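User: Hey, my collaborator sent me this sequence without any context and asked if I could get a structure. I don't really work with proteins. Can you help?
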Amino acid sequence: MTTPTTERTVNPQTGKRALFNDSQLGWLTKAMAFAEKIPLADKIKSDTENSFRRDLFEAACKEGFGGLPFPKTYGGSGGDYVSFCLLNEEFGRTVVPVMSSLGVHILCQEPVYKFGNEEQKKKYLPPSSTGEYLAAFGLTEPNAGSDTAAIQTTAKLVGDEYILNGTKTFITSGAAADYYIVMAKLIDDKNPDAVKSPKSITAFIVERNFPGFAVGQKFNMLGMRGYATCEIVFNDCRVPKKNLLGEHGQGRQVALGSLAKGRVTIAAQATGWAQGALEGIVSHLNAHREKLNEVAYLVGELAMQVESARALTYQAAYAIDRGEGDAVLAGMAKIQATDAAMKVATEAISIVGEEGTEPKLLLERIFRDAKAGQIYEGTNQIQRSLIARNLLK
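Assistant: No problem. I've predicted the 3D structure and written it out in structure-token form, which is a compact way to encode the shape of the chain:
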């Protein structure tokens, strides 16, 4: 697969698409320049060795990506969510090793910005923007994936500390993060049954060095490798009272509000995967014109699916920037984009043939990452159910 040029669906040189303003295209240009500097060998090594590149993460933050959609008051870049999606699409297209960690990093800053007090914002947001801090999101558990109400991690207020117990799993950046946004069910001695209710879920900012915190097993997964994905364990973990995020019982609101934005980020990443796989097909067919008649109709179909994913993704991103973020629209974008990525990547490997499984072409990594995209942050099956539930309520 040849290196794609800047003459793409979105072109910062000619501005041929009026959907994006100069500022947004400027962020895309920066993202393209950053991605082009990363050697192919580094992308392959991060995947094959399942190694997290903290140096690349910090370099991305120095470009302003680490706090892109947050105001400069708290160290952010003052950009919008559309710009952040353009960044993620580009990083997905070119398989930049820090893409997912950067997405989760922004996901974790969102609840601090929205629900945190002034002290928390000043402590965590500026160093997150610069890359001094890396954040991870602690929601998924061994017996609680897409069902947030089923979490079993508990928190109990004892004096001036909350005592957390439980295990979170498949935590992106978990083995490398400096702090974590963690959801736990609050124990109330006066009402022991209250802990069984989703209304008991409460959010905390947990730092890596808090007593009782530990990194558990690390995962060697099919896709989304190189993101320090692991378990995190709380064994009488002592969290200062000042690290309560929001109010008691507000944890589900904290989690779901952030995840809705996170799904739009995933949609942008998946649109990039789909675009990268499509460009791989086009490059291959330009070198093997004898195959073109057999698959031309299919290439046209795949191109339509990529553009449909892009349209729905940026519709969801624009809604966020207008303050009209919608969990249903975010779910639709995530489904459309990840399904498109899986379809285009699958067909790419079929069309290119055995050569398509070579790591240097990146097609097989896009294929593996796209499958993970259909699963994490709410499986596509769950997202479809939520969409139906919203229509039928």
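In plain terms: The domain at 136-249 is CATH 2.40.110.10 (Butyryl-CoA Dehydrogenase, subunit A; domain 2). You can pass these tokens on to your collaborator as they are.
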